[in-house]
Amino acid sequence: MTVALVRASEADRSVLENLLHLYVHDFSEFLGMTPSEEGRFEYPALPLYWNETGRTAYLIRSENRLAGFALASQGSRISGDPAVLDLAEFFVVRGVRHRGVGRAAARELFRAIPGVWEVRVNEVNAPAQHFWRRVVEQYTEGQFQYDAWERGDGSRWNVFRFTSSDTTET
Asked: How is the chain split into domains, by residue range?
């Protein structure tokens, strides 16, 4: 199976908006969210990925077909450390889940942007907890930190911290 991580440009904005609608819809199960009156789940921070330095958007392709996206940014949401890389959002469409697409795309992302990473996973999202624990354990060969974090709004998150490099063998 071929999986590619492709840097998204502003021309890909509508594609990302559509994928983000699906992503936020998936999260609504855990967070009790409802769509706008237009029937859409919005992601207001998307324009920042073309207007602020340190933010990068990627499309995930599998077998040359659209399969998801990844949004990464520079700066820890937890400590404020500007050097830390933050996996802001990561999504693989349901039709290709459980086939290794997400794992391959995550490895490509960590190799594409070497450094110290934080992957935050909402505590209520058990499937994501399982996925990220397996991916990070495999990618780092067990060399990662795992901590709990409570956001200002009271939501609880688990955080995986590790260092990636473009030469990591997995």
From this structure: 54-164
pLDDT digits 0-9 by tens, 112-122: 999 999 999 99
Q: What is the pLDDT of residues 14-50, one digit of tens each?
A: 999 999 999 999 888 887 888 989 999 889 999 999 9
Global pTM?
A: 0.92
Phi, psi angles (nearest 5°) of residue 23 = -60, -50
DSSP result, 115-146: EEEEEEEETT-HHHHHHHHHHHHHHHTT--EE
| 154 confidence band (pLDDT: 50, 70, 90) | confident
Which long-range contacts link 142-151 to residues 24+ away (Cβ below 8 Å)? 148/123, 149/78, 149/120
> Looking at domain 54-164, which of 3.30.70.790, 3.40.630.30, 3.40.50.720, 3.40.50.80 is its CATH number?
3.40.630.30
Beta strand segments in 2-155, E: 3-7, 55-62, 65-74, 85-92, 115-122, 145-150
